């Protein structure tokens, strides 16, 4: 392992003190800087990893990313050096213990846990504003100093806006139990992934255990309401945890500022219901015995509520067939995660639903659905001929028997299960739906704000109109980009990644402005002048984001060229 001893000098400069710790990538020593004449910590890549170019580059990038962040809640990094072919960097020497070591002593007091969560949130806010997503936040990467400070460590998995992934492996590196589900599914990370990790960390501070105890790192898809939080945790903290740990990013806090306000006891609007992503795959969702005759004439049948929640509609013929057959395919050709999410939505509304692999579809299902009508009509018409022969004295003539049989057969065919091809929802191949769903969430927020402006003074209504217009322009631009991504860029190129990061960042800014305006419209901001001031600020935020969105039209280069953000 090429271990070092106290007194060894690295890079001709750092005289080593005691070893402070080690991880899978590097080891850390206290050291005396002979040039700067001060105490520092030295982090050096393990010897057996120094020949791995990807890991060495990840290590160097941690230094670069962290050094660019200037915030008291983020460990300060100084310079990059090399010793014996192994890269190392110097950083501030911290005295205290990690949050992980503190939690080993048991659950923390609510006030102390909340104060640490607030400090972490403030540091994340600074990192996100600089375009940096940590991607590996956990108690081991939070340091509690002896002076009472809180420091974020280890930005080795962080990605700066516009930086390409190091390797295909690094895209899914992280710690099970803390990494957001969308990252495990191979999707791109934005600031909300860090908020999920912070929620898991906060849960552990309050409860003394991880929120997800399963050994399967991918099994984090349970509804937030199923989290078993310590009963001593306050209702306000339980609500923060459930929102931060929602498996759907659209249902979490939009940014660290929103979570910070919630931690400080301020109101944050609930996100609007947003349909789950419908990515393509090899699974169907069947609903069973959910439509009854009286429900079809009810104001809001349960199947309509489910369809609305999933962002879809179904023709009357599909519903009548569901009534006759007792079951139907609601979602077809979807990914397993999509199918399970849709089934969970059905369960929330009390609808029985099952997930079925596409290769288990009955071979006759599609054929009977398409041809069963005329087949049963012919069979029943033939039965009418037989009936006319058996009952010659009946008042019906032979043609009448044939017609009645054909009609009866056609009606019976509506009891055949609708095929997968008639399902109201179908998985969409190659869809990166995160931006489209974020744009849809903005539209829903704008609609809610538009409805809420009725009771507002005229001056405030004009500001709301300006904000809603900016939000509408933003959603149109975002959907244009989603439908027609730049073809000349490879998915991992710096320019393409920077474009996507800027797009997501601007959309989150507009969504946050709409939420702030909703609070102002509800009169929670104090005097009328304060409401006007806040609305004006929200309009400025949205309008400031629009030029960048317009510059991100498909086929155009992102603002500032194609180089990664510094």
Can you walk through the features of this model?
This protein is α+β, with helices and mostly antiparallel strands and 566 residues long. The chain has 4 domains: 9-91, Phosphorylase Kinase, domain 1, CATH 3.30.200.20; 96-263, Transferase(Phosphotransferase), domain 1 (Orthogonal Bundle), CATH 1.10.510.10; 278-430, no CATH class; 434-551, Four Helix Bundle (Hemerythrin (Met), subunit A), CATH 1.20.120. The chain is built from 17 helices and 15 strands. The strands form 4 sheets. A 6-stranded antiparallel beta sheet has the order 1-2-3-4-6-5. A 4-stranded mixed beta sheet has the order 14-12-13-15. Strand 3 (26-33) and strand 4 (38-45) form a beta hairpin. Helix 3 (110-129) packs antiparallel against helix 7 (256-263), helix 12 (363-390) packs antiparallel against helix 13 and helix 14 (434-452) runs antiparallel to helix 15. It starts with 8 loop residues before the first strand and ends in a 15-residue tail after the last helix. The model is unreliable at 164-172, 486-492 and 557-566 (pLDDT under 50).
SSE blueprint and pairings:
Layout: E1 9-10, E2 14-22, E3 26-33, E4 38-45, H1 53-67, E5 77-83, E6 86-91, E7 96-98, H2 99-103, H3 110-129, E8 132-133, E9 142-145, E10 150-152, E11 159-160, H4 181-184, H5 191-207, H6 235-244, H7 256-263, E12 280-288, H8 293-296, H9 302-309, H10 316-325, E13 327-334, H11 336-348, E14 353-357, H12 363-390, H13 398-413, E15 425-426, H14 434-452, H15 458-483, H16 494-521, H17 528-551
Parallel strand pairs: 13-15
Antiparallel strand pairs: 1-2, 2-3, 3-4, 4-6, 5-6, 7-9, 8-11, 9-10, 12-13, 12-14
Helix pairs in contact: 3-5, 3-7, 5-6, 12-13, 14-15, 14-16, 15-16, 15-17, 16-17
